[in-house]
Amino acid sequence: MAVSNNHIALLAFIVLCLTFSGCSLLKAKEQAELIENVGEIKGTVTVSGSQKGPVIVLRFHDEKGIPVLRYHSNAADNGSYQFYVAPGNYYIAAFVDQNNDGQYQKKEHGNYLGGPDIISIQKGETLKLEPIHISDIAPKPATKAKARVEIRESLKNIGKVTSMKNPMFTQDNYSLGMWRPIDFIEQIGWGLFFLQPYDENKVPVLFVHGINGGPTVWKTAIDNLDTEKFQPWVLFYPSGFRLDIISEYLVQAVVSLQKKYRFNQLNVVAHSMGGLVTRSFVKKYRERYPAISKKLKFVMTINSSLGGMESASAGVKHSPIVIPAWNDVTPDSTFLRTIHDWPWPKDIPYHLVFSFKNGSNGDGLVSLESQIPYNAQAESTRIYGFNNDHVGTLNDADFLVLFNKLLDESLEK
Fold it and tell me: What homologous superfamily does CATH list for 39-149?
């Protein structure tokens, strides 16, 4: 009897599980359940005062009566915002970032939701809050508790300069991000890193890795990048998370960097599952920030499971531990329907790269059917195929020549 690639993938997963300690397996299962219980807070901010500027929304976690600021978000052009949160109690505030430095100053207009009011969110709940209206300096809060600021590394790492030699970029950490994403966040912290100091005369190229991967998968491509014209950025994220959460982080990171540096062009290249994250990012970026999203001039996906993977379905159905990202990569997932029902913007060039190995239906991991679904073919500027495997294409000499040629063509003349 023939053995399908899906059964082989599931068997490989079981073997991998057997190499984990019981404690590690238990942690992986607990963290997967925590992620599936994440709730969502949505709301809007309106501004009628004299101050102008982007609106930043602050999310405070209530810890025994003390508001602790750990995360903030850039409100969309229409004033909307959203946060993915663990079950618990929160406060929400917002301010007009008049000097565009990302920090609240007392002279900047702002307000709270309520006085502020505690917002309680349960497992898997979505709360739509009343609007926050900003018209003047924020009033004194009704609570006497003094807020504490503990900004997460995930925000501090946006725009931090590092190198490919950073000890956090290891396969052990990549695997940690897939199996135990919460430990990854607490121990490592995800980020959007620069590999050289920002240079306004160079176009950013953002590299997005896939599941169980990390920035070093791009080493050859980055080594061959023309750094006289381009500056490499790398996204590093826990790949076991739900993909909407990952793309949400990417949107907020890019918007923060655009506000700070006001770059005129951004190019994005993604591998494997990173192509799904990227399509979700482009959708949210265009819908929420239509003006600055026009700076996106080039998108490429490489060997991406655009149509989903049956092996993910097999894992969801039969595995004792279900990695949350698998739910989004199953071919019939709500996530895939959402990103594919949305038409790709005609003003953003999209280059679709796929790979195949002789005698196989795909690149050894992702089938051709999934790499080049019809809708993606129809929306792409052009399609390119390589006789290589899933990761090998990234180091293929012909691919590197093509990649750099297309990047050069993307430059505004």
Answer: Immunoglobulins (2.60.40.10)
